[in-house]
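A.,

Following up on our hallway conversation. Structure tokens first:
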């Protein structure tokens, strides 16, 4: 699939030569992909976090998503982080606490007993165009999310922090392009009980982007944002086989009591985080400054690929195969009885052929009705696949 992209327009007062040696706008990106977690819905869930350093240096921030998305499919996550210190610490792996700033959508995050401000959480309101403005790219090929730094940043002179954090969730069926199921052409019976998925994620990867998109993000004072680091977490059930060719640096089991609040933003959601493994991949780049010391640099393009294999053998998968075996057994017995009645015999035995055909038709109708009542279209599609394998191939 195409690449995610983050671009920005610098502030007017930051384009002068006097400011070239100063720290300018930069971003740390957090991406959490929840897939094959044993939840009822099969659609992946994607969380994106943006740590915006030197926000005053940006006049406008533009995030490109390589798929169509609606406002209803976007949910803010900073609100739940600001309410739970344990969850905040688990997300950042630091002993952070937060304090809401009254009459605003901001929360100050501090570390330990020092009380020094680390950064500020901003709670996005996707229904407000002041916070986020959505626009389509090429009739739904992608979506732009435009953020206004002047709205995000605090206007209070007492707060000198220029580091802000945004985090939100995407719940869209279009995310299946990021986690695509692979149908092996010559392994029919294996794919009946196992599914193979390919994860293809890219960020600021101009090689995989439309040329018109690259031009739009790199011209008219617009620049691809410098990415100081990118942390990617893949969340999957423990029984899912994950192959990322050694790209993961670490893994851990999620603390279910903490993360349950994070994945269930409303009472309607019944997701569980028990036995879910978080696989961590990070990308960072360092460069030498004039004094010879290391400093963080732009990682540039980022891409990630992994292969997942998840079992799908359960009661609803086994039942249609059992029914099919019964049906095949009935057909074979019917064929034997018909042949038996056609052979010359002194005394005909067995029921009439017409009666047997009627009985077979009744069984076929009964089995078909049972399949539809059990799981509707999915089981019928699976049964059709098996029949194609046995009789067409």
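Then the amino acids I'd put at each of the 393 positions:
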């Amino acid at each position: 699939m195409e690449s995610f992209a983050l671009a920005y327009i610098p502030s007017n007062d930051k384009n002068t030569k006097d400011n070239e040696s100063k720290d300018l706008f930069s971003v740390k990106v957090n991406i959490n992909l929840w897939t094959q977690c044993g939840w009822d819905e099969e659609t992946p869930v994607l969380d994106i976090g943006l740590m915006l350093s030197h926000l005053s240096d940006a006049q406008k921030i533009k995030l490109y998503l390589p798929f169509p998305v609606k406002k209803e499919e976007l949910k803010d996550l900073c609100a739940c982080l600001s309410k739970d210190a344990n969850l905040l610490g688990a997300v950042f792996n630091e002993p952070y606490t937060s304090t809401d700033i009254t009459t605003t959508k901001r929360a100050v995050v501090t570390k330990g007993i020092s009380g020094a401000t680390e950064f500020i959480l901003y709670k996005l309101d996707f229904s407000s165009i002041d916070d986020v403005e959505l626009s389509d790219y090429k009739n739904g090929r992608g979506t732009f999310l435009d953020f206004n730094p002047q709205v995000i940043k605090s206007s209070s002179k007492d707060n000198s922090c220029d580091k802000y954090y945004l985090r939100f969730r995407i719940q869209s069926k279009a995310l299946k392009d990021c986690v695509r199921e692979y149908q092996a052409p010559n392994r029919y019976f294996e794919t009946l009980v196992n599914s193979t998925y390919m994860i293809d994620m890219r960020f600021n990867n101009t090689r995989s982007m439309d040329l018109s998109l690259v031009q739009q993000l790199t011209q008219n004072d617009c620049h691809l944002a410098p990415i100081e680091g990118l942390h990617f977490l893949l969340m999957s059930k423990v029984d899912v086989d994950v192959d990322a060719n050694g790209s993961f640096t670490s893994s851990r089991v999620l603390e279910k009591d903490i993360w349950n609040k994070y994945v269930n933003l409303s009472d309607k959601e019944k997701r569980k985080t028990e036995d879910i493994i978080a696989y961590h991949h990070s990308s960072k780049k360092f460069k030498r400054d004039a004094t010879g010391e290391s400093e963080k640099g732009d990682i540039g393009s980022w891409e990630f690929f992994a292969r997942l294999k998840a079992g799908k053998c359960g009661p609803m998968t086994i039942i249609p195969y059992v029914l099919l075996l019964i049906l095949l057994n009935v057909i074979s017995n019917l064929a034997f009885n018909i042949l038996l009645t056609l052979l010359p015999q002194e005394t005909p035995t067995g029921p009439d052929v017409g009666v047997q055909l009627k009985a077979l038709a009744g069984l076929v109708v009964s089995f078909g009705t049972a399949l539809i009542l059990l799981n509707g279209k999915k089981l019928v599609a699976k049964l059709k696949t098996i029949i194609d394998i046995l009789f067409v191939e």
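The longest strand covers residues 227-237. Curious whether your intuition agrees with the design.

B.
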